[in-house]
């Protein structure tokens, strides 16, 4: 099974390439393959040709931080978050989660995945709340991971939403016990939430447990870390140090780290030394944290975002997540990574042309680095033929236009195409 995708703009140079896909992988990538390959003796008869029209082609979007078990629960009775804070969100979820069923979670999660797919996402890291002795969320998402694997790659974090040592289940089980049970059941990553634990010592202990479990089960780490405006919330330091000591920094992600937006510069300066050495990843959810943080502030009001620009300038990998879709933590969220990226660039003041030209990496390769996708990701010969087409003529144009994804291809198979053609006889509009 072969398809030749022609006229693909893969970078900002203006040149176009053709992509020959064979058995789900990129077989050849080069200029004018429709002429070059027959000249080299390859018979293209019977090969389907798809003209990509000179539009921008890039590897699929990666949403590295999402809660698929929470989606579309914001309007459930009792789930309304009146204060708009993270901590009320957790309480609302805790109070309303007892009626979940595997089928119901799957139905909601499936709708959310469909929205993400429609926006060009093909790689999702989702958290599954395991502070529930029935482990309903986890069982649902494990099933969905397998059912949808031809369409989307899902990584699941065994995540103790109500804490490792602050949560106690009806039979005395701790959140840590349930996280470990989640790993035995097949979760891909170990989760934690140290800033939510009842006291600092529990939070620190949970970081030791996270790293120990990751080593014991050979899994990745993704911790909700320092998701607070408190500049003294510094669990990322301990997480980075422990992961570095075990040699698993690159397998580790600190999500949110909003407190770095409040910490003073001398602390951050000291921390960057460790972060550069440990090579841990950061995941940022700009829209949710802009909404949730700064709620105790009057004015000036904090932005809730971690130091994306400064981390990036220090060579630290930062990726992006939607985090929420209509859940007790955020009433919006539709899986459109271009919206999330737009917020990131504004909130982080990353607006030099060099930064804008390179901005798509936050939603693409940086996410792949976080998720450790390796050779399973990227537009290169021999790799799976996964890519998206944006309605733009280059990387800057995509960011400038907040471009729509007009095609998504997975293992050579087109998942969808969309058209954004505007028809008008009104003179100024014909220039748009
Ligand atoms: Zn989260």
TrEMBL record:
InterPro entries xref list: Amidohydro_3, Metallo-hydrolase_Enzymes
Residues covered by the Amidohydrolase domain: 48-413
Superkingdom to which the source organism belongs: Bacteria
Protein name per UniProt: Amidohydrolase family protein
């Amino acid at each position: 099974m072969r398809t030749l995708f022609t006229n693909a703009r893969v970078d900002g140079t203006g040149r176009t390439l053709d992509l020959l896909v064979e058995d789900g992988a990129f077989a050849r990538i080069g200029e004018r393959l429709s002429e070059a390959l027959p000249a080299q003796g390859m018979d293209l008869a019977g090969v389907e040709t798809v003209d990509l029209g000179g539009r921008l082609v890039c590897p699929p979007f990666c949403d590295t931080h999402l809660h698929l078990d929470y989606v579309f629960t914001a309007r459930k009775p009792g789930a309304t978050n009146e204060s708009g804070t993270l901590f009320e969100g957790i309480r609302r979820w805790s109070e309303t989660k007892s009626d979940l069923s595997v089928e119901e979670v799957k139905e909601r999660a499936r709708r959310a995945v469909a929205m993400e797919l429609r926006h060009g996402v093909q790689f999702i890291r989702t958290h599954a709340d395991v502070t529930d002795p029935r482990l309903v969320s986890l069982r649902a998402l494990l099933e969905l991971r397998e059912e949808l694997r031809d369409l989307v790659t899902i990584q699941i974090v065994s995540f103790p939403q109500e804490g490792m040592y602050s949560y106690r289940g009806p039979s005395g089980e701790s959140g840590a016990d349930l996280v470990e049970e989640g790993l035995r059941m097949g979760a891909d990553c170990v989760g934690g939430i140290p800033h939510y634990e009842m006291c600092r010592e529990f939070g620190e202990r949970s970081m030791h447990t996270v790293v120990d479990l990751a080593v014991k089960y050979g899994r990745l780490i993704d911790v909700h870390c320092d998701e607070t405006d408190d500049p003294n919330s510094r669990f990322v330091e301990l997480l980075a140090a422990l992961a570095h000591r075990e040699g698993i920094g690159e397998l580790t992600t600190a999500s949110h780290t909003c407190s770095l937006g409040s910490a003073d510069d001398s602390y951050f300066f000291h921390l960057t030394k460790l972060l550069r050495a440990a090579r841990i990843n950061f995941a940022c959810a700009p829209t949710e944290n802009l909404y949730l943080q700064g709620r105790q502030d009057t004015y000036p009001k904090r932005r809730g975002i971690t130091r994306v620009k400064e981390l990036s300038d220090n060579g630290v990998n930062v990726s992006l997540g939607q985090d929420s879709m209509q859940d007790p933590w955020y009433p919006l969220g539709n899986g459109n990574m271009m919206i999330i990226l737009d917020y990131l660039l504004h909130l982080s003041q990353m607006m030099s042309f060099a930064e804008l030209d390179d901005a798509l990496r936050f939603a693409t390769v940086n996410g792949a680095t976080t998720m450790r996708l390796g050779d399973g990701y990227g537009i290169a010969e021999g790799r799976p033929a996964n890519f998206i087409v944006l309605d733009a003529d280059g990387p800057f144009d995509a960011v400038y236009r907040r471009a729509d994804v007009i095609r998504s291809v997975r293992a050579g198979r087109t998942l969808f195409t969309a058209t954004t053609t505007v028809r008008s006889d009104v003179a100024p509009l014909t220039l748009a």
